[in-house]
Structure formats: structure tokens, C-alpha cells
Design the sequence.
């Protein structure tokens, strides 16, 4: 009995204009359009192998080595939609094997710890859709497939593209116009780098889905954000990306992160995702931008205290010469930066920066060094990739 | 040469619907109406003695024993307006001494540490206006005088009344309709108590005036707050007070505090007044209200991390049996509560509450005990009071 397999990797994306609020919970239709940057899969990606065979007894998923349930309505919706597209192909060409009728084995692995709270569900559903679409040899465009990934996890739709991606909210009730589109390819503005500061937090936060709907239902300010603030910002941010205007892009990104967290605080009861360490990072970024008299760094925070900082490669030394002083003890620097580079930052700091930043460092350094557990240095990257690396044994149909 | 003196005390007030934003900085005209509760002067008050004599050489102010400048435009505006009203009296009755033309000596003392960040400027300007109005024997109503106090410090206008007070924003350019009015006298709803949790914070915050105008000028959400959210909430909160509906009053108070801090977070750069300790207090209050299935406590935060909790006397044991467990090591409990009462709370806690609150306590207790430096237990109280206690030597015209 033959086993068909296909493998794909998919990236994490971090929104610069936030998705917060569903107008339809079942279809994951958002209350506003959003924008994100896709991060390099060298650092953060999900690899998924999809296999199907007439001999398989049931749909099964192994995630990071553990057998997981596929019972959630969201996953079922994705599988149903993908099988529907496959069955249309089979109807057109009866010689095709009836993959749409067979059970699926799915094996999925992240190259980063899921516990870090780094949008793993977006990469996960994007990789699932990409791998099965490839297995089924579906002819649909990435934007079409993004509608399926969206049903799994809203922000997953944006992980079907590399570079700079917009999720157009759409207006139709069935969600058929709520899809991701690419604003710029990663190669059209390749200088964008990201530094993720993973902030430890003992408290379990409100989940995104719960939090969103609490905000939608209780925040007075939320309606104004989605009806008036975001539509204008969406157009401005697209323009800033198209014209590669980092200064403007950074301002819009920081404002939108703050606006999103403001509506969380305006929810009832209020939701707090950012903490005092996050705020120190925010204050530090504004101080750095003010020092250089232009925005060389933009912070953004998702539904948790982790900071993602965006900056251009050409400003790396300017930025990291300061930032490294605040969190020199954190692990992760040596994974991407040589000791010569770090020594060079120390020199730049002592010579040009110390006078202006010393008092802030003495206030913030202990807390930041203590509360940030890890730094991940990465950059803008491509969308899903087909790969020969397989997680399934092609004889047994089970995880390797 | 005779010296005329008069002394008055004035209270602190803590807003339950926040004043944040000036539409006219020079006249302290607000962008929205606000509501506050006046606190008892037994715990928090400014005492001011005003003296005048033809022999005085210059206007002088001694504040808490220190000679202070009277040069600020705001103080000058208050003195000018009060003298103007006096001169009208002198014009009507030429037999009156020409106090309006003489210099003033002002001596002022707070019965609480100004460092605690407890709205001392409101009590200060209210006492200054009340003492001078009395010295000048002005016939104007408190609402009329509140317009003068408002020019000194916006929220000072609300300290000219006891009980439950509204500051009607008004709409005229000259501010002549922007004044305080009483919603309810303290004796009409006397059960209202307040517990102030003074939270230590090493960082110097953005001043209220700077912060307000940054919000007015940069927050996208702010306009919606003042144009749409607050007008409706103002009417609802007045109704809740008039009908003594604590449950509704508490919800509106908590929502308004959060809405105000949300617009601070939405400012650019963002302003943070509440910190992680404040958030723990917020979470705890929601947990307590949820446990009792009705709002028995309302938190509110001004431009700093200090919490003010409002509750009704009848719920004191219910509330403090829990709250005391979180901050039992803080000084201030024994000033108002007997050791029998505190032991009784411990009993109630162990018997009825421990099971539900123990895990929260183990998460929060160390931080709250460490970061809260002082508790002040007080209650709703009256407006400015004339007093025979004088801070000025009536022979020398100088501070005693």
C-alpha cells in the first residue's frame, strides 16, 4: 500500500499592526486589517510532514514528539477545506488517487521552544496547510490557502507569505475576502532585522482568544480603534513599507502596539500583557530614538511581555552598543554576534554613549538582566518552503 | 497697625471619573467633566491662615515651614481674582478697610506627607481660596469660588465641597461656566470609606500637566474618550451616586480609572503611571468582587501607582479580612483598627476565605508587602472649614 508524503516549513510572523478582535469567532474573521513581518526560518519555523495512505486508520497529529488531538473545530475546518479542494481536483481528473478520502498522518516540529510564547500557532497552522496543500498538489494561490490557515489560527494566514504581509480583513460574512497578501517581498527590503527579548513571567496570561473577545465586548475605546484609528494606520503603514521609510514605519508600529495594549487595559476586567520590564524596554527604545533624533528601533508586544524590536541592519551597531549594556548577561548574544563585535559595542558605548545612558542603565540594568531570559536575533525571511526533510517514515507512515 | 487674619482647612479629593486633559492650559479648563469624593480632613487636609495688613511689604507664602515663591501665574491669577471680588465689596461700602490693596501673608500646612503623591495641590489651592475668601468676607458661593481655585489647580475646584462632587467642564471660552457643584452631601451617603495604598516608586513620573497635554496632543483614543465615553459615564455615575448604588458606582469608577490609564498608554511616547504592584491590586479587587458576586470595592489610580479603594462601611470586614492578608506588614493598620478587629479578620479569613484566596496570596503577598509603604484609612468628609487654629502670629504677622 503506497504512502504519499510531503513536507513544508513555515515561518513565525510578528504583527506591526495588531490583529485584536474577531467579528466572527467561528471563522476567525477579524475586526480590523493587520500587518506583519515574516521572520527568518533559520531561527523560528515549524516543519510539518503530511502523509496519507489508504491504509491509515485515522487522522493523527504528532507535535514535537507527542501525539496530539486533532478534534478541535479549527483543525477540522482546515482539514475539511483542504480535502474539499483536493476532491475538486479528483473530480476533474478521475485518474488521480483519492487522497481526499484517506486519513492523514501529520508530524510537526518547531525549532524553538513553544513555551517562549512566540506565535507558534501561526507557524503551526501555516506549515500544516502548506504541507497538506503540497501533498494534495493543490493549484490554489497562497492567498487562497491563507483563508484556510486563517480558520486554524487568525494570524497563521500571514505566515503563508515572506517579507511584509497584510491581512485584509474583508467584509463578506463567509470570510471569502479575508486573506493575506504580500506588501513587499523579503528581498525588496532585506535590511530589516528583529531582536526578540523573551521576558519571563510567572503568571499565566489570559489567552489571546479569550482576551480578544473580552476587549471586543467590554472596551469602550476598542470600537474607535478598529473603526477609525486602524484603517488610517493600515494605509500609512503599507505606504511606509512600500517606500522603505523606517522612521515612519517605526512610529506607526510603536503606536499600534501601545494602542492595542491600551484597549486591553480598557477591557473589563482589564487585561495586562505588558509588565514593568516591558515598560523599561519601551522607555529605553524611546530614549535611544530620541538620542539619535530619528527612529532607529521599533518595539512591539503581542499578548505577553516579550518584546520584539525591529531595526535596520545598517543601524545595528548604533542600537546594540546601547542595548547590550542593559542585558549583557542574557544568553543568546554569542549565537549571532562574535566577541569582537560585542567588544566593539563596548568601545562605542564607552566613547560616545555612556554619558547619556549611564543613569538609565543604573536604574534598569538589574531588572532587565534578571527578567529577560533569552534573546533571539533574526531578520525578515521568506514564506513556507517545500523541503526534502521528512519527519515520517515512508514505510510505516509513523513518525521517524 | 492692625493685622486681619482668617484660617480655613480644605480637604483632599480623589476623582472617581478622571480629569485628564485641558482644553485651555492657562485657565485650567478641562476637556471633560469629572466626579470626585471628598476625603475626611481628620486624615488629609491643608490648613491655611491668610493675614493682611497695611504694613506688610510683599505677598509671602510659607508652606510646611518653608518660604515658597508666589510667582507662578496660577497663584497670581487666584490672588488677583480674590482681590478683585474684595475690591467690588469695598466699592459698594467705602467704610470697609481696603484689604484688596494690601499685601498678604499666607501660611499653610498639610497633616500628611506631601511626598506621598496624594493630590496635595488640590487641598492647597482650595484652602488658600477658602482662607482668603473668609479674610475678605466674600459673599460668593462655593461654586463661584471654585472657579478661582480651578485656576490654581484644576482639581482644587472639587475640594471646595464635601461629599460627592462634580466638576462641570462648561463650554464658555472664559471658563465662567467651568465650576464644581455638589452631587450629594457627605451626610447623605456617609457610609463611603476609602483605603489609600501608598505604593513606593523610585522613578519620577511625568507631571500631571505635562502628561495631560501629551495625551491630548498624541493619543488617538483620547478624543473618543472625552467626546463619547465620558459624557455618558458622567451622567451614569451621578445617577449611581444619587441612588447610592455602590455596585454600579464601583464598576463605573474602575472602568474610568482604566480608561484614563489606557489613554496614557496610548500617548506617544507612552506614559505609565500604574505599575506591576498597582496591577496586582487591580486583579485582587476584581477577584474579591467576583468572589462576593457583587462589587464591594472599587479601585482608582491617579497620575501615579498609589491605589485608592472605595468601599461601604458595612462591607469593611468582608473586604479587609482579605486585603489585610496581602499587606499585613504595612504600617497604618493600627492607627484605625484595633488588634481585636484585625484578629477577627484573621479568623474570618481562615474560616471562609483561605481556600479561595490562598494561591493568589502566595503569588502576590511578598510584592505587595514590599512595595506598599503605607496605608491610610479614611472616609467621605466635608468641604472647607473655618477654624480658630491660626498659623500666624497676630502681632508680628509672621508664622508662629
Sequence:
Amino acid at each position: 500500500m503506497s504512502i504519499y508524503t510531503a513536507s513544508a516549513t513555515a515561518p513565525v510572523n510578528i504583527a506591526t499592526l495588531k490583529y485584536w478582535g474577531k467579528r466572527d469567532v467561528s471563522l476567525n474573521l477579524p475586526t480590523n486589517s493587520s500587518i506583519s513581518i515574516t521572520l527568518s526560518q533559520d531561527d523560528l519555523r515549524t516543519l510539518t510532514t503530511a502523509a496519507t495512505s489508504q491504509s491509515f486508520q485515522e487522522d493523527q497529529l504528532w507535535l514535537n514528539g507527542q501525539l496530539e488531538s486533532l478534534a478541535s473545530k479549527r483543525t477540522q475546518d482546515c482539514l475539511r477545506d483542504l480535502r474539499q479542494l483536493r476532491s475538486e481536483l479528483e473530480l476533474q481528473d478521475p485518474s488521480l488517487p483519492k487522497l481526499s478520502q484517506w486519513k492523514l498522518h501529520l508530524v510537526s516540529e518547531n525549532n524553538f521552544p513553544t513555551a517562549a510564547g512566540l506565535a507558534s500557532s501561526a507557524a503551526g497552522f501555516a506549515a500544516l496547510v502548506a504541507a497538506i496543500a503540497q501533498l494534495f498538489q493543490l493549484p490554489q494561490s497562497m492567498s487562497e490557502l491563507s483563508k484556510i490557515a486563517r480558520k486554524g489560527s487568525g494570524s497563521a494566514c500571514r505566515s503563508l507569505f515572506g517579507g511584509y504581509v497584510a491581512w485584509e480583513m474583508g467584509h463578506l460574512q463567509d470570510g471569502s475576502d479575508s486573506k493575506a497578501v504580500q506588501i513587499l517581498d523579503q528581498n525588496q527590503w532585506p535590511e530589516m532585522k528583529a531582536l526578540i527579548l523573551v521576558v519571563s513571567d510567572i503568571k499565566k496570561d489570559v489567552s489571546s482568544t479569550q482576551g480578544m473577545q473580552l476587549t471586543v465586548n467590554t472596551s469602550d475605546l476598542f470600537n474607535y480603534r478598529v473603526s477609525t484609528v486602524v484603517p488610517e494606520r493600515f494605509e500609512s503603514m503599507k505606504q511606509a513599507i512600500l517606500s522603505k521609510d523606517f522612521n515612519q514605519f517605526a512610529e506607526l508600529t510603536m503606536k499600534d502596539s501601545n494602542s492595542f495594549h491600551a484597549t486591553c487595559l480598557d477591557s473589563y476586567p482589564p487585561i495586562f500583557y505588558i509588565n514593568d520590564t516591558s515598560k523599561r524596554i519601551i522607555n529605553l527604545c524611546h530614549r535611544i530614538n530620541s538620542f539619535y533624533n530619528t527612529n532607529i528601533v521599533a518595539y512591539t508586544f503581542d499578548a505577553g511581555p516579550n518584546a520584539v524590536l525591529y531595526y535596520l541592519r545598517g543601524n545595528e551597531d548604533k542600537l546594540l552598543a546601547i542595548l547590550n549594556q542593559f542585558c549583557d548577561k542574557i544568553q543568546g548574544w554569542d549565537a549571532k554576534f562574535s566577541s569582537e563585535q560585542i567588544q566593539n559595542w563596548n568601545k562605542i558605548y564607552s566613547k560616545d554613549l555612556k554619558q547619556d545612558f549611564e543613569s538609565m542603565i543604573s536604574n534598569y540594568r538589574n531588572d532587565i538582566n534578571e527578567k529577560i531570559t533569552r534573546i533571539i536575533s533574526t531578520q525578515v525571511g521568506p514564506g513556507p518552503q517545500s523541503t526534502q526533510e521528512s519527519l515520517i517514515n515512508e514505510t510505516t507512515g509513523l513518525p521517524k
Notes: Chain A touches chain B through 30 residues (CB under 8 Å). DSSP finds ten helices and 16 strands in chain A.
